[in-house]
Amino acid sequence: MKLKIFGLTIALLFTVFSVETQGQTRNPFLSASPEELGFSSERLQRLADMLHSYSEEQKMAGGVALVLRDGYAVFYESFGKLDVESDIDMPKDAMFRIASQTKAIVSVGVMMLQEEGLLLIGDPVGKYLPEFTQTNVAVANDNDGYDVVPANRSITIRDLLMHTSGFSYGYGTAIDEWREAGFLGWYLSDRDEPIRDLVRRIAELPAESHPGDRFVYGYSTDILGALIEVVSGQSLDVFLKDRIFDPLGMTDTHFFVPQNKANRIATVYSATENRGIVRAPEPGAGVGQGHYLMGPRTTFSGGAGLVSTATDYARFMQMMFNGGEFLGQRLLSPTTVELMTVNHLHNIEFRPGVGVGLGFDVVTDLGARGIPGAVGDYGWGGAYHSTYWISPQDGLVVLFFTQLIPATGSDIHGKFRTLLYQSLIE
User: Fold this and answer.
1) What is the pLDDT of residues 25-77, one digit of tens each?
2) Coil, strand, or helix at residue 284?
3) Which helix (DSSP H) or strand (DSSP E) does residue 88 occupy?
4) Ranges of residues in the chain whose predicted pLDDT is under 50
5) DSSP string, 379-393
6) Which residues, at least 6 apart from 21, have a Cβ–Cβ distance to it below 8 Å?
7) Which segments of 259-381 does DSSP mark as H helices, in order?
8) Where are the beta strands (DSSP E) in 190-288?
């Protein structure tokens, strides 16, 4: 795609100048007309109309969508309400609980440590976290129970990155043991216990499968968070701030939200059977609104703990799209980005046409996947129904933030993707 670049180049130079002389701006992404970026304005309006209709029809409260092409913002829309009951419109700088979108950031942190020669992803995890030197696995037996047996090999850091460690979120063969230990589900932000201590206790529980046998979604990235703490000598929150958030200008990304930003946190809603929404419970009644503001501020969950904004997370995504660099700040080499964004799940089942890299899923077969996109697209999502993907082939960085849990029956992701791609005309 060839852009009409004269005006865009002047604007880009002005933006880079302002970033270098005044500090990182809140939104560094230049806007351009959709036609200059290969989109149809008329067709993009269909996408905007659909998003607004979903909030008006109470299929969701609201959200923020941001689409970049080759680093330029082609679509940036807030819609619906930050809080329905208070009738507060959704601002573009709203803060969202991003849950498992935390995993990609922590995975980048691990790869940065590899680039510095402090670890190798082929290393056994027990080299750094001794409690993982020998782990156990729950294996179902013929008596409607299970036996606990030694794992057939050591878990590697790469296993944690690609979710083949065998450690789940507790909902498996040994569910009773995981429940008794207090480890059912991904949510840890209400704990008053450092992640390093939590991970020691997780290591004592029987895993769901032997390392490398299959994809098991669970606490692997939380274990990586503890690994970062041990290898770097910093707490996870400090490491991420010093090494990723500050260099990229991600000033609104936190494990626990500062009090002066409380009015920007989007309220969580839940889908109901009749397709309406209800306000999720307040903190203390399960996940609900969560403890991201008033919690103990002790557990830094590398698997699901961060809160962020659309433009903050887009800075991180654009860094990956750029091969590890953003606005003069290089976090990774292009070869490391390439390694992270190819399929590592050979001979292990995941989803049709989709594999798993190091912190992301990766499209391997467009026809088998069956939805619009391109081979090589990579991304992930979060429990509160946020999603994102990066398309090197199409030059796209796409982010959709909302707060809907559970999102039972919602087709917003499919509609969003379809209406975005129908507006891409070159």
Assistant:
1) 456 899 889 999 999 999 999 999 999 999 999 999 999 999 999 999 999 99
2) coil
3) strand 88-89
4) 1-25
5) EEE-TTS-EEEEETT
6) none
7) 310-321, 334-340, 366-369
8) 269-271, 277-279
Contact 325, 331 (CB under 8 A): yes
* Backbone phi and psi for residue 150, each to the nearest 5 degrees, phi listed first: -65, 140
Neighbours of 205 (CB within 10 A): 21
pLDDT tens per residue across span 271-287: 998 779 999 998 765 67
* Spatial distance between the Cα atoms of 38 and 3, rounded to a whole number of angstroms: 8
CA-based diameter of the chain, in Å?
73
Q: How far apart are CA 423 and CA 195, in angstroms?
A: 44
Name residues whose C-beta falls within 8 Å of residue 226's C-beta, 6 or more positions apart in sequence: 129, 195, 196, 198, 199, 236, 302
The pair of three-digit structure tokens given for residue 351, joined into one six-digit string: 């989803």
CB-CB neighbours of 169 under 10 Å: 19
Would you call the peptide bond into 91 cis, given omega within 30 degrees of 0 as the criterion?
no
**216 touches 171 (CB < 8 A):** no
Phi-psi region of 409 (alpha: psi -120 to 50; beta: other; left: phi over 0): left
Asked whether the whole model's pTM tops 0.90, one would answer yes
CB 232 within 8 A of CB 115: no
Residues 92 and 228: their CA atoms lie apart, in Å, by 32
Please, are residues 207 and 151 in contact by the beta-carbon 8 Å criterion? Answer: yes
Q: Which DSSP helix (H) or strand (E) runs through 215?
A: none
β-sheet bridge partners, residue 148: 138
Non-local (6+) Cβ contacts of 251 within 8 A are: 24, 26, 245, 312
DSSP state of 377: -
Which tokens is 12 given? 């880009």
The gap between the terminal CA atoms of the chain, to the nearest Å, is 7
How high is the pLDDT of residue 286? 64
Q: What share of the chain is helix, strand, coil (3-state, %, to 5)?
A: 35, 20, 45
* Total residue count of the chain as it appears in this document: 426
Give the Cα separation of 268 and 370 in Å (integer).
30
List, for residues 155-188, the tens digit of each pLDDT value: 999 999 999 999 999 999 999 999 999 999 999 9
Lookup: tokens for 173: 């063969």
Tally DSSP H helices, then E strands, for the chain. 13, 16
Containing H/E element for 64? strand 62-69
